[in-house]
Write a structure and sequence with these properties.
- With 269 residues, the chain is α+β, with helices and mostly antiparallel strands.
- The protein has 8 helices and 18 strands.
- It has a single domain, classed as Fumarylacetoacetate hydrolase, domain 2, CATH 3.90.850.
- It has a 6-stranded mixed beta sheet with strand order 4-3-15-8-9-12. A 5-stranded mixed beta sheet has the order 6-18-17-13-14, with no helix packed on it. A 3-stranded antiparallel beta sheet has the order 10-7-16.
- Bound molecules: manganese (II) ion.
């Protein structure tokens, strides 16, 4: 018992990257000592979860994947040729999630460092099964639920870093850059292969397209992603935004919509 506590304390001090190695030591030492105790940690980190509509469940978020330039007209407005480019992906940290309850207008702080803060309305797919090299024909079996989300973007930083051939993470992967509504389970709402997707700023329509205009549909996104990363339950995928992205300033209100999901509204503060 003394040995295990000492080892677990060491694991905590060494940090997450070494936990895998220490966990195997823990299993060895624990043999024959009864049920495992959770490892002691110097502090706790809150889990990031999204409410599941119509239930008291909260979906735990493991990773946030996002696909870039997945509508042809948006790809063109971003300066690329959609006919020649395979899909590409980036990630946001899980604590980028800002849950927005339907029927509310959530305050969304204008982030630091940017002078060109953009909205991107997107369909989000949430997985309950993982895997590697998932075939397109079976990919939708991995989807648990869908939500309406915003991929908020510090466009000037994204472009500036891209121009310097540096990672544009600072433009995409920052605090509260992923507002999202509740998850709606596939059993209740089915899959989303078509349907109107729109976004308004201060009541004026800015983005207005159809989900069927995605270059890579959700099944293809899951399949491609699973070639690059092993997917797991808790992984969510922002499926890309249509054309006519643009800036907001403090005081602006954003309302967005996908057919079959409740609306999502934020005010930039
Ligand atoms: Mn996006």
């Amino acid at each position: 018992m003394v040995n295990r506590r000492t080892l677990l304390g060491t694991a905590g001090a060494l940090g997450a990257t070494t936990l895998g190695a220490c966990a195997s030591v823990e299993v060895h030492v624990r043999k024959g000592q009864g049920p495992a105790e959770p490892p002691r940690m110097p502090f706790s980190v809150p889990a990031v979860t999204i409410p599941v509509a119509g239930t008291d469940l909260h979906y735990p978020v493991r990773r946030i994947y996002c696909i870039g330039r997945n509508y042809a007209a948006h790809a063109r407005e971003m300066g690329s040729d959609p006919t020649r480019e395979p899909p590409f992906f980036f990630q946001k940290p899980t604590d980028a999630i800002q849950f927005v309850a339907p029927g509310t207008v959530a305050d969304h702080p204008y982030p630091t460092l940017t002078k060109n803060y953009h909205y991107e309305v997107e369909l989000v797919a949430a997985l309950h099964k993982g895997g590697r090299d998932i075939p397109v024909a079976r990919a939708l079996d991995h989807v648990y639920a869908y939500a309406l989300g915003l991929d908020m973007t510090r466009r000037d930083l994204q472009r500036g870093m891209g121009d310097q051939k540096k990672p544009w993470e600072i433009g995409k992967s920052f605090d509260r850059s992923a507002p999202i509504g509740p998850l709606h389970r596939v059993g209740q709402v089915g899959h989303y292969s078509k349907g109107n997707i729109w976004l308004k700023v201060n009541g004026q329509t800015k983005q207005n397209a159809d989900l069927s205009q995605m270059i890579w549909n959700v099944a293809e996104q899951i399949s491609r992603l699973s070639e690059a990363f092993e997917l797991f339950p808790g992984d969510i995928i922002y499926s890309g935004t249509p054309e006519n992205v643009g800036p907001v300033v403090k005081g602006d209100r954003i309302d967005c919509h996908i057919d079959g999901l409740p609306g999502l509204s934020i005010r930039i503060t």
